[in-house]
Amino acid sequence: MIAFELVLLAFLIVCAISACLTKNLFSTVIIFMSYSSVMCIIWLLLRSPDLAITEAAVGAGVTSILFFITLKNVKQLKEEDEENNEEK
What is the pLDDT of residues 26-84, one digit of tens each? Predict the structure, then answer.
C-alpha cells in the first residue's frame, strides 16, 4: 500500500511540474483534471471521504468545466480580433 501511495505522490509532482511547463492551455486543463482526480484518491486513502467528494466535485468537475468554457471564449475572442484585423 505504501508503494501505491508513493506512486500517487510522484504522479502529483509530475502533474504539477508539467502543468507549469506546458504551453498548450487545453493540455494544462487536462493535467489539472488528472491532478484533482489523484488528489481525490489520496483523500480516500487518508479516510477523509468528505474532502474526496469535494475534490472530485469542485477540483475535477466544476473548475475544469469553467476552464474549458473560458478557453472556448478566449478562442472566440481571438477569432473575432483576427476577423476585425482582416477587414481593416
Answer: 899 999 999 999 999 999 999 999 999 999 999 889 999 999 999 888 887 677 667 67
Assess contact for 39 and 51: CB atoms under 8 A: no
Round to whole Å and give the CA distance between 67 and 40: 19
Cell of 30: 487536462
Q: Which of 42, 49, 43 is nearest to 5 (CA)?
A: 42
Q: What DSSP line would sit under 16-81, residue for residue? A: HHHHHH---HHHHHHHHHHHHHHHHHHHHHTT-HHHHHHIIIIIIIIHHHHHHHHHHHHHHHHHHH
Q: Which three cell numbers stand for residue 45?
A: 486513502
pTM, entire model:
0.81
Place of cell 492551455: 25
Cell of 59: 477540483
